[in-house]
Amino acid sequence: MQPRNMSMSGVVDLAAVKAAGEAKAKAEQARADAARQGGTPAVSPSALVIDVDEAGFERDVLQRSTEVPVVIDFWAEWCQPCKQLSPVLERLATEYSGRFVLAKIDVDANQLLMQQFGVQGIPAVFAVVAGQALPLFQGAAPEAQIRQTLDQLVQVAEERFGLTGIAVDGEAVPGEQPAAPVQPAGPYDALLEAAVQALDAGDFAGAVQAYKNVLVDDPTNSEATLGLAQAELLGRVGGLDAQAVRTAAADDPSDVRAQLEAADLDLVGGHVEDAFGRLVETVRRTAGDDRNTARLRLLELFEVVGADDPRVVKARGALARVLF
Prior knowledge:
- The chain is of the alpha/beta class.
- The protein is built from 13 helices and 6 strands.
- 32% of the residues are buried.
- The N terminus is likely disordered.
């Protein structure tokens, strides 16, 4: 199959984008600054190529795409052109050193994702940047063409979305298991209790800060993650005029702020499916920054309800269908 180019010129006017060399220099400086300031720790080169399935797509692709472009390689074991293309993409992922992450999706095991992206033949390569899907090319393209496409993708991600990539530990051996993380200090009973007391007192800002204090040391603390989402939600709805918000949302479906506020009120009022449906519809009818804002608010409300809740599972599927 001959490769078919799918230009990204419709996504952003590349004539208005600064030179790629300047963009790369800025990205390198941003990564260096983040490392000096104790930002996100560097990852092993082996973390730049990952296998993704339907269950992990939200976490491994959509969420990750808010910090680094994710290039998706749709492949299958029986596909000979895939066996030519995949090693090239894997090598380039390491060479680009954190400017993109390569997600490999086996179409035989993940046909729903294949359908959602509209893949007609493999190999097919897409990118997801800040939650937005971009078709790149189809077929086993020459390496020079792949490099040109990746350079364009990186440039768009940096200039349009402010994504400078992730830091990579150059001294780590590819495939080597990372050292066990240092166990965070704890326990956090006092901080969590302080957050609960702040919530009970209506001090939502205080509760937010208390939960954030826990998450600074223990980013995976599920109680603090849930509490933070709840405190932020209650803080947002605290000063709202419910009648005015619902009137504005009903009168103007394109008013993104009104839809977000109405969804918050729906959730606080126990109308979970209404809240999710409203935001999925807002994502469907919007584009650009508005779409991303609505999508991120929906993900926040998922945190409040809980990932295992069947209403969240259903809404995640609806969101994926709208996005892809």
